[in-house]
């Protein structure tokens, strides 16, 4: 059973540990503890903890924007290949509609993250632009709800 709950500061150390795993660091830009603390206290930034069978199994970072849009900044899942990430994304979309009346969610993903691209495509996200971060190609994707 999967559940999303608002994150608490006590989860940050676990988030940092999840971000630093070798199967994760190549696809994100890990935050320091201070960065997570700062982001978590911003009015427009939402941290959601992913609980699987009541255990902390990952987290999502969102940023509310104007025009009923949400930037899907990050998802990190502790145990890969179990469908937790896909289930969490679907629940995150429902959360955004229920709490923010969101019409559009957008994200960026490194082109090298083929697994992430596959999941986003499977869940209905469409590419709308390309960009780069430190000479690494990024694909920007969106989904209208």
Task: Tell me briefly what this model is.
This protein is α+β, with helices and mostly antiparallel strands. The protein has helices spanning 12-19, 22-25, 33-40, 84-100, 114-122; strands at residues 2-6, 45-52, 55-65, 69-77, 104-110, 126-133, 136-144.
Explain this structure.
The protein has a single domain (about 1-105), classed as Gcn5-related N-acetyltransferase (GNAT) (Aminopeptidase, 3-Layer(aba) Sandwich). About 30% of the residues lie in helices and about 40% in strands. The chain contains five helices and seven strands. The chain has helices at about 10-20, 20-25, 35-40, 85-100, 115-120; strands spanning about 1-5, 45-50, 55-65, 70-75, 105-110, 125-135, 135-145. The protein has a seven-stranded mixed beta sheet, sandwiched between helices.
Key descriptive features of the protein:
32% helix; alpha+beta; Aminopeptidase; 7-stranded mixed β-sheet; 145 residues; single chain; 7 strands
Number of strands: 7
The CATH superfamily is identified as Gcn5-related N-acetyltransferase (GNAT)
Specify the number of helices: 5
**SSE run:** EHHHEEEHEHEE
Q: What's the Cα radius of gyration?
A: 14 Å
Secondary structure class reads alpha+beta
CATH C-level class is: Alpha Beta
Strand-residue proportion: 35-45%
The major beta sheet can be summarized as: 7 strands, mixed
What topology does this entry show?
Layout: E1 2-6, H1 12-19, H2 22-25, H3 33-40, E2 45-52, E3 55-65, E4 69-77, H4 84-100, E5 104-110, H5 114-122, E6 126-133, E7 136-144
Parallel strand pairs: 4-5
Antiparallel strand pairs: 1-2, 2-3, 3-4, 5-7, 6-7
